[in-house]
């Protein structure tokens, strides 16, 4: 019996090592290869088809970080993860604050970082099971260690959902504001970031009072952080991009 248990433990250890190796290889590959889709996009498409939504279409248009307005980048950071430039994939201060607030009767709110959201949306299914959360934590560690901050932000801006079938700031910019991700203004970027908590119900081009309030809060947070310059250590390419935008908008 002891020998059998030892063999089983050895088999499980080897299996775990192989799974870790495969996961690491997949995460590392996507540091250099732009993902053609994401687990969340595939799940949303499957759900739409199952619900009989025959006209559902996934609008996903990859753009490099240099082809995305710095205003869009700072808007999502100000809205979703203000410690993004410095954290290690997790924001433990926000997690502790959310738990303390819940203990005092507040609704338990999420404290996911941008890195966690990338890990979840790119690789995993939706839901709140312990297994999924454990996998998300493991993938977050891998993404944080194997990708640069620039790459994490670039992927997030391209796979975040902004409406039914609308993924990434390029698709959202065209759908809602008839422009490109490169030319999004601060107000437009803040409206897009404001719908991230519930993109199926909230609309940046027909903002509810809640979206307007969130927009105003995000703009204030952007100003408090110092604007796109806050991301200078994350994406140095923003500096020349800002110069080109200034030239483009000059009279």
Short descriptors:
251 residues; mainly alpha; 11 helices; globular
Could you describe the 3D structure shown?
- With 251 residues, the chain is mostly helical.
- Helices cover 60% and strands 3% of the residues.
- The chain has a single domain (35-47, 66-249), classed as Orthogonal Bundle (Penicillin binding protein transpeptidase fold), CATH 1.10.3810.10.
- Strand 2 (161-163) and strand 3 form a beta hairpin.
- The chain has helices spanning 2-32, 39-50, 70-80, 92-103, 114-123, 130-146, 149-159, 169-177, 186-194, 209-225, 238-249; strands at 59-60, 161-163, 166-167.
- Helix 9 packs across helix 10.
- It starts with a helix and ends with a helix.
- 34% of the residues are buried.
- Strands 1-3-2 form a three-stranded mixed beta sheet, covered by helices on one side.
- The radius of gyration is 20 Å and the shape is globular.
- Residues 244-251 have low confidence and may be disordered.
- It contains eleven helices and three strands.
Q: What is the overall shape?
A: globular
Give the name of the CATH architecture. Answer: Orthogonal Bundle
User: Count of DSSP helices?
Assistant: 11
The CATH H-level superfamily is Biosynthetic peptidoglycan transglycosylase-like
The biggest beta sheet is recorded as: 3 strands, mixed
Q: Helical percent range?
A: 55-70%
SSE blueprint:
Elements: H1 2-32, H2 39-50, E1 59-60, H3 70-80, H4 92-103, H5 114-123, H6 130-146, H7 149-159, E2 161-163, E3 166-167, H8 169-177, H9 186-194, H10 209-225, H11 238-249
Parallel strand pairs: 1-3
Antiparallel strand pairs: 2-3
Helix pairs in contact: 1-6, 3-9, 3-10, 5-6, 5-7, 9-10
């Amino acid at each position: 019996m002891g020998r059998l248990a030892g063999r089983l433990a050895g088999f499980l250890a080897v299996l775990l090592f192989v799974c870790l190796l495969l996961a690491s290889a997949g995460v590392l590959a996507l540091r250099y290869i732009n993902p053609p889709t994401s687990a969340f996009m595939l799940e949303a498409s499957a759900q739409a088809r199952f619900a009989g939504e025959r006209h559902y279409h996934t609008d996903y248009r990859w753009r490099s970080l240099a082809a995305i307005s710095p205003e869009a980048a700072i808007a999502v950071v100000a809205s979703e993860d203000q410690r993004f430039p410095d954290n290690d994939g997790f924001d433990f201060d926000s997690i502790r604050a959310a738990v303390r607030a819940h203990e005092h009767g507040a609704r338990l709110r999420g404290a996911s970082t941008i890195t966690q959201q990338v890990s979840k949306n790119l690789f995993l299914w939706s839901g709140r099971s312990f297994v999924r959360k454990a996998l998300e934590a493991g993938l977050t560690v891998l993404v944080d260690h194997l990708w640069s901050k620039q790459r994490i932000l670039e992927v997030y801006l391209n796979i975040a959902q902004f409406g039914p079938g609308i993924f990434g700031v390029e698709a959202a910019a065209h759908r809602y504001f008839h422009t490109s991700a490169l030319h999004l203004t601060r107000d437009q970027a803040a409206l897009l970031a404001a719908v991230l908590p519930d993109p199926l119900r909230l609309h940046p081009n027909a903002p509810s009072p809640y979206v307007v309030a969130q927009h105003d809060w995000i703009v204030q947070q952007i100003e408090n952080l110092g604007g796109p310059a806050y991301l200078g250590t994350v994406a140095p390419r923003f500096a020349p991009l800002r110069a080109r935008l200034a030239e483009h908008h000059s009279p």
